[in-house]
Amino acid sequence: MTGLRLSNIGKSYGETRVLSGIDLDIAVGEFVAVLGPSGCGKTTLLRLIAGFDRPDEGTITLGDRQVAGGNVMVPPERRGIGIVFQNYALWPHMSVADNVGYALKVARLPRTERETRVARALDTVNLAPFASRRPADLSGGQRQRVALARCLAAGSDLVLLDEPLANLDVHLRATMEEEFHRFHRESGATLVYITHDQSEAMALADRIAVMDKGRLLQCASPQQLYREPADATVAGFIGGGLVLPVEGLRPMGNGLAMADLLGTRVRLRCHAGETARPLAMASTHPADIQPVHPGEAGIPARVTARNYRGGSWSYELRPETDPSLRLPMVLPDTATPPEPGARLDLAFRDLWAIPLPGAPAPGAAPIPSSSHLTEQFQCA
Amino acid sequence: MTSVPNSTGAPRAPLFRLSSERIVLALLAVLILSVSVAPMLRLAQAALFDDGGLAIERLAKLFSRPQIGAAIWNTIHISLASTLVSVLVGTIFAVIMVQTDLGGKSALVFAFVLPLMIPPQVTAMAWIQAFSPSGPVLGFLGLSMEAGTRHPLYSRTGIILLLGIYNAPLVYLAMQASLRRIPLDLAEAARAAGAGPGRVLLTVILPLAHGGMVAAASLAFVSAIGNFGIQAMLGIPARVPTLITQIYQQINGLGPSALPNMAALSLVLTALTVAGVLLAARAGERSDTRVDLGSRPLMLPLGRAGAVVAALLWGYLIVSLLLPLSALLQTSLVTAYGLPLTAETMTLKNYVSALFQQVSLRDAFVTSLWLTLFTMGFLMLASVFLGYFLTWRRGPLVRLLHFGSEAAYTLPGITLGVAMILLFLRPLPGLGISIYGTPWIILAAYVAGFFALALRPVLSGYAQIDRALEEAAQVAGAGFLRRMRDVIWPLIAPTAIAAAVIVFMTAINEIQTSILLISSGTRTIGPMIIFLEEGGASTLAAAVGCLMILGVLALMLLSTALSRFLPKGVLPWQF
């Protein structure tokens, strides 16, 4: 059953195209993170789902009800969704209990039922003793939990979370992530979680929808996103991935392929429908680059720089066949570290052949050739 | 083929749905279009067109009258010169208040801004009495003139000086805001480069505040053009005609037949006002709009000079505020104008008379009071709604409404008065009755004229409300009016109430608009001072003036006491 379906959503503000061709199906009870740099359109997407803005093209369906598209536009107050705002948006003139119970009051629930539900919601987020306080008297984490309780009490089937951890101290984030998991379990609601922080998205979501420049690039499980990126932008964005050119890609069935990387024959994982191509892109991660085991053949490279990172060394290497390339490598500090200038043979422990644009990969969209996303997030 | 009705049961296109939000916006539109925009259009039409088309001949005749040419020239000359005085005084005061560590600033600012809240006709009367040729002040200064000499203030210079001093607080308010926005590090960088405090002021701070200074000058200029109280109280006896006094005298003397020509003069006033506003807007565009870093401004230690500066400032306030007000108070406490105030001559007769005996005064006060209370309450509500649309639902219509309300406020009150007469002289369509000569026309003028006054603080209040608070309520299922009541109103209420207080203080003593709209049956209290003064009842007029000042002062103090509930910068007289 569908929790939320976006079909071919497009939106412009004046001349600026903010969203185009967004297709996304989210199942009931699923936890989906929408991940992308600022300005990628994820906040606009949230406002369209909530009903604060109207899409120029496409339709939005909540459950079996179309709420936007064509001549239909259900206002936010009739969509029955919950939102956890970035700055919590707790009404300063109401007590915590009044904040949590407001939607029920608007819906004219009898007082006793209202009080029961408010008490239960506050109990779930461990804030029962704070019911009569004002939001101003609470800490950031507590306010966040009040905002969660507000959605819990309202019993919304779909809850949108707009960068809910952005305003919290780092040490509170881990606790709040746990809180979100619990909220998801207790409420059974469909969750759409907007964030620019990929570790947050990885830790929380069933699936991650990666957005850039108003397009949805890929929507897949965190592991699939990391191991099988649909295009070079996603590959470069997720986990500080590297994108390297390979020659003579030749699928061998059972999801594996052979190709030449920097003049050396390597094995790659690939898409089931992958075709033989003279040129292709492969993705890998710094953790997958290692010195070869003794006796193994590898790609010759020279150490150009190294930095101590506490417990490990990070290296910069230049392959001898293409010195314009720079490869990162991370090694634990237990072994003797190679000096700058030293020569090493490298092995790539995992490589993925990035499918051709337009290839039928789940949730993938055509890609723009280059992206600021890569530059901005490679080191993150 | 027959069309199939939408089977999903989803709501139809909201463009045509009558939501409460749309109804409120439509009501606001009808209101502002009929009391602000329509009168302006009618004014322009009456000024430029006669029955036979464009009234070139009539206008040519009007503007060839030497008296009219003199009035236009006087208006420009007096407004420009007084602006110069205002900018000088206001800037010096602002620099000292913002950039130095002078003590006792709160009291100084309160006393400096107070005259702005006093109706100009009362200020004019106070000055006239304080600096009369035979009066004690000039005598004390050794400047006493022979009895029978013309009053020194009854002159072009007198008008310029008084308008300049009256509008100086306006310049101060605009300048202090722009001075405070200058980041501290710019001044500190100049100090580090070796510039002394005076040099920093002249080469860094004032150039950076240039945009603010032009805006302030424009405010003072526009305010001087439209200041009826001072121009009438000094200009009419001095025989220095200005556009405003011409319009007043001609309509008073000739009646409705003078309206087309006076509408034309009103258009000239409007053009001058618009020129002033545009100048400020252009300066605003070109000036550096850096973000407010919220840094504290440079605090120059004055050291020993502090005492001298304080003495000079207080001296200025004594001459410009205390002397006139004490002269007014003195006059209000004796039985005949010019009588020295002693233990024997002192009497409260004038106050008793003003408060309890004079039926015309009491009626005027009652009329003013209910008109003001009604305007205040209505505008408080309307500005909260319009402020909502302006902040979060901007569109072409909303922008037009904002423009309409700002225009009606910026134009000289007398222009609004002429426009109101022109529009409402004829019976209302459908009702068959004319509201001309009734309090309702004054009410319409007050709503039009003071809408922007209420709206401005409310808008600054909205700017401090996180929109997510409203959106959260929307998501919780609350409709427009419900959100207004449960979420917006509790958050905006302090600002809206402060705005209402400012409207009250302005409307209760208002003179510029109502001077043209009052009739023998319907008078407001503001113009009564002029009538009493003209009728020779100076002591009674002084008592009424003192009562007005007392009322204003009480409201200022009361709202200052409650200011901790208000966003910063809503009360103009607060430092």
Descriptive account of the structure:
The complex is a heterodimer of chains A (380) and B (575). Chain A has helices at 42-50, 96-106, 111-124, 140-154, 170-187, 198-204, 222-227, 232-237, 372-377, and strands at residues 2-13, 16-27, 31-35, 57-62, 65-69, 72-73, 81-84, 158-162, 190-195, 207-212, 215-220, 242-251, 256-261, 264-269, 277-284, 289-291, 299-308, 312-319, 327-332, 343-348, 352-354. Chain A is α+β, with helices and mostly antiparallel strands and 380 residues long. In chain A, helix 3 (111-124) crosses helix 4 (140-154). Chain A is elongated, with a radius of gyration of 24 Å. With 575 residues, chain B is mainly alpha-helical. Chain B has 2 domains: 19-52 and 333-575, MetI-like fold, CATH 1.10.3720.10; 65-325, Orthogonal Bundle (MetI-like fold). In chain B, helix 4 (105-117) packs parallel to helix 14.
Characterize this entry briefly.
The complex is a heterodimer of chains A (380) and B (575). By secondary structure, chain A is of the alpha+beta class.
